[in-house]
Fold this sequence. Notes:
- Keywords: Methyltransferase, Transferase.
- This is Class I SAM-dependent methyltransferase.
- Its EC number is 2.1.1.-.
- GO terms for molecular function: methyltransferase activity.
- It holds the Pfam family Methyltransf_24.
- This protein is an alpha/beta fold.
- The protein has a single domain (about 40-245), classed as Vaccinia Virus protein VP39 (Rossmann fold, 3-Layer(aba) Sandwich), CATH 3.40.50.
- Helices cover about 50% and strands about 20% of the residues.
- It has 9 helices and 7 strands.
- A 7-stranded mixed β-sheet has the order 3-2-1-4-5-7-6, sandwiched between helices.
- β6 and β7 form a beta hairpin.
- α2 (about 40-50) runs antiparallel to α9.
- The longest helix has 25 residues, at about 1-25.
- The relative contact order is 0.14.
- The model has no long low-confidence stretch (mean pLDDT about 95).
- S-adenosylmethionine (SAM) binds near residues 62, 94, 162 and 169.
Amino acid sequence: MLHKIINIFKNKSNEKILSDSIKEIHSQIPQDFGGGCSHHKALLMGLVISEFNLKNSADIGVYRGRSLFPQAIAHKLHTKGLVYGIDPYSNEAAVQNDRPDLQEQLDEFITVTDFQKLYDDVSNLIKKNEYQNNCVLVRKKSSQAAIDFKASNTKFGLVHIDGNHDTKFVMEDVANYFPLLDDKSFIVLDDISWDSVQPAFTLLNKEMIFIDKLINETNDFALFGKGISNEEILLLKEIFKKIKKK
Length: 246
Ligand SMILES: C[S@@+](CC[C@H](N)C(=O)[O-])C[C@H]1O[C@@H](n2cnc3c(N)ncnc32)[C@H](O)[C@@H]1O
């Protein structure tokens, strides 16, 4: 009994340290049209990584790092593992055509964005915050990176899919990274309300266990798991419920 009570307090303070560290790194990284992982999604990924002691995670679509660094923090504080940040940082790869209602803004974004500077900024944040042991940038398209991961037999406990949102690429990400998942593992799929992402959402619903989703002004994502027990599903639903209340 005493052991259980001590664990509750330990988990609470661990969560607070994780949450505060994520707030601190997020205060250094602006949100804008190109990206902007919320505190909710960041904390959820951090908690899943630490609760399940996931050693490797993948962040597909790094941009300024708002979804990458929370994973690095969870690895640094808890698992001593590594997040791979996968992004080609190229104007060509960032072209998206499946949102006709946003096409003008998307095209303008490609024209004005300096991807080399974004890459340099994220690299500098890794050094400044001493995340080198828990975070590595892979400057490649996710499809190319997946070939390398397969060759090196690298597997992931968590994959966050937030790269190119056109259907072709999101479906490619699901197809390429699903075989790279550990037996017990998770996918966080972003922008699930986009028509172009819907087919990936439907596919993951069939292939994995749907835990929950959060859609509001600042969030649009779902969490899926595989290889998890009923007890773990309940734990994840509880974590998600807590996240929704924040
Ligand atoms: C929506 S942003 C990511 C936002 C980021 N996850 C965050 O929370 O702030 C999409 C990113 O995907 C990257 N991207 C585009 N095509 C890609 C591909 N084939 N593989 C990996 N990343 C890609 C873009 O360069 C861009 O930085």
